[in-house]
Design brief:
The protein contains three helices and no strands. By secondary structure, it is mainly α. Helix 1 runs antiparallel to helix 2.
């Protein structure tokens, strides 16, 4: 099941089974979240073409238009 691969799911499951206490569950879930974020940042750094959008500068529709332009060029 894809939901079982969610960050923190395994830790909560182990807690509910009694395999860990509440604090261990929290610590392990935080560690798993940090590991995922680190993997995502590594993946993003390896992208040859990347575009960042300042969400404060652009409205949602403007970003959609910019994305449409980028994808139409690809």
């Amino acid at each position: 099941m894809p939901s079982m691969r969610c960050v923190g799911y395994r830790q909560v499951w182990q807690y509910l089974e009694g395999s860990s206490n509440r604090q261990e569950m929290i610590d392990q879930a935080v560690a798993a979240t940090r590991q995922l974020a680190k993997r995502q940042m590594t993946w993003l750094r390896k992208l040859s073409q990347k575009h960042a959008f300042d969400c404060e500068k652009y409205r949602q529709n403007d970003i959609f238009e910019l994305l449409n332009e980028l994808f139409s060029k690809a």
